[in-house]
Design goal:
The chain is α/β, with parallel strands linked by helices. The chain has helices at residues 46-53, 76-81, 99-103, 122-135, 152-164, 182-197, 209-215, 237-248; strands at residues 8-17, 20-30, 35-40, 61-66, 69-71, 84-87, 110-114, 117-120, 170-174, 202-205, 218-223, 226-232. The longest helix is centred in the last third of the chain and has 16 residues, at 182-197.
C-alpha cells in the first residue's frame, strides 16, 4: 500500500527565544482527513510549534511542506492564504459584531463600488454565514446575534466556523474545550467530528486527555521542546491516560537519543 502525501509536514523544526531552546528539532506530519492530538505539559513546545505552522513564528531551522511542496511562511496572513487556519484559545472574536461579522472579519465581501469605495454585500455574507452554520450543524438561532450574547460553546463554534469558511486545508485548534461546561465540551467535540466527516484535517492542542481520546486518530506528545511519542489513538481510556502521563513526565520516551561515550 502506497502512503499518500501528508497535507502538511514539519521537518526538524527548531526555534530559540534568546537562550531558551523552545523547539529542539520537532517533526510532525498531518494526513488528509485526520484529527491529530497534540499534548504535553506547560512549556512543552506545543503552542510554539503550532505558531510556527500558522506563520506567527519563523523557525530558526527546519522546513515545512504542504502536499509535498516546500513553503516558507512569512506571517499568519500568508499561512491563511495557503489554507492554514488557527483558532486561538482566546478565540479573537469581536463581541460588538454579530456572527456574520465575525465569520467575515477581515475578509468582507464587497459588492457595489461607489467611486473608489467598496460597499460590503451584507446579504451575501449573511447567507453564506447561515449556510456555514447549517453545514456544520452549529446550534445558533440566528447569524444576526451579537457574539457577546452567545454562550462559551457557541463562541467557540463561531471561531471554528470562521476558520473553515474559506476552503482551509489545515485547521489548528488551541485548547478548544478549555473553560467550557460539560455540555458545551461535547458540542465542540461533535463539531470536530462533523468537520472530520466532511474531510477536514485538524490538529488539536489540549490538556484534556478525554477530549483527545474521544476525537483524535493519532497522538503526538511533546516534552521540553521535543517529540517523545507519535502513535495512533488505541486501547481503553485508562490505558491511554496512563501512557500519556508516562510520556509527559519523562518516564518514557520513544525518541530518546542514546549517547555512547
Amino acid at each position: 500500500m502506497v502512503e499518500s502525501t501528508p497535507v502538511v509536514e514539519m521537518c526538524n523544526i527548531k526555534k530559540n527565544f534568546a537562550a531558551v531552546q523552545a523547539l529542539k528539532g520537532v517533526s510532525l506530519a498531518l494526513q488528509h482527513n485526520e484529527v491529530l492530538g497534540l499534548m504535553g505539559d506547560n512549556a512543552a513546545g506545543k503552542s510554539t510549534l503550532m505558531k510556527v505552522l500558522s506563520g506567527a513564528y519563523i523557525p530558526d531551522e527546519g522546513e515545512i511542506l504542504m502536499e509535498g511542496n516546500k513553503i516558507n511562511l512569512t506571517d499568519p496572513l500568508h499561512a491563511r492564504r495557503l489554507g492554514i487556519e488557527m483558532v486561538y484559545q482566546d478565540l479573537a472574536l469581536a463581541d460588538n459584531l454579530d456572527v456574520t461579522g465575525n465569520v467575515f472579519l477581515g475578509r468582507e465581501v464587497v459588492g457595489k463600488q461607489i467611486a473608489s469605495v467598496g460597499i460590503m454585500d451584507s446579504r451575501k455574507m449573511e447567507q453564506e454565514a447561515q449556510r456555514l452554520v447549517g453545514r456544520l450543524k452549529i446550534d445558533i438561532p440566528s447569524v444576526r446575534l451579537l457574539v457577546e450574547r452567545l454562550s462559551g460553546g457557541q463562541r467557540q463554534a463561531v471561531a471554528i466556523a470562521r476558520a473553515t469558511a474559506f476552503n482551509s486545508k489545515v485547521i489548528i485548534m488551541d485548547e478548544p474545550t478549555a473553560a467550557l461546561s460539560v455540555a458545551a465540551i461535547e458540542k465542540v467535540l461533535d463539531l470536530v467530528r462533523e468537520l472530520k466527516a466532511q474531510g477536514a484535517s485538524i490538529i488539536i492542542i489540549s490538556h484534556r486527555l478525554e477530549d483527545i481520546y474521544a476525537v483524535s486518530d493519532r497522538l503526538i506528545v511533546m516534552r521540553q521542546g521535543r517529540k517523545v511519542r507519535d502513535t495512533p489513538v488505541t486501547g481503553t481510556i485508562d490505558e491511554f491516560r496512563e501512557s500519556c502521563v508516562a510520556y509527559m513526565i519523562g518516564a518514557r520516551d520513544d525518541f530518546a537519543k542514546v549517547v555512547v561515550e
